[in-house]
Amino acid sequence: MHNQAEAHKTIAGRYIEEIWNQGRIERFGEFFAPDYEELNYAPANAAGHCGMVVKLKQIMPDAVWTIERMTADDDCVVCELTLRGTHQAEFRGIVPAGNAIAVRGYRTLVFMENKVVRHSALLDTAELLRQMQEQKAA
Fold this sequence. Notes:
It contains four helices and five strands. By secondary structure, the protein is of the alpha+beta class. A five-stranded mixed β-sheet has the order 1-5-4-3-2.
């Protein structure tokens, strides 16, 4: 089981790098089963998930997720991440001021046959909005 957990961690790391950091949503199917369970994005499928990647890259074109910690147990990988970028497009009515953003997030990926079959994510949205609304120092 240890080897399988390590393999899942490698896949999770590639998913973060290729999909979220590089924005290569055309590769989504390499990581996720076609009928995977999506617990966060709407619609709750690949279109909703990839749509959020596109939206994030519009808001923060330089967005990068850094994996701070990753743990795996059998079929499940949990990632603790930091999202860093520069607020460059309107989000939830907040006009961009070029603020540097750094917020924590978490992703849980459940695997079956080396494909994600269940995904959930948590982002410190309150902190994200607070940092977006801060006035830049003159």
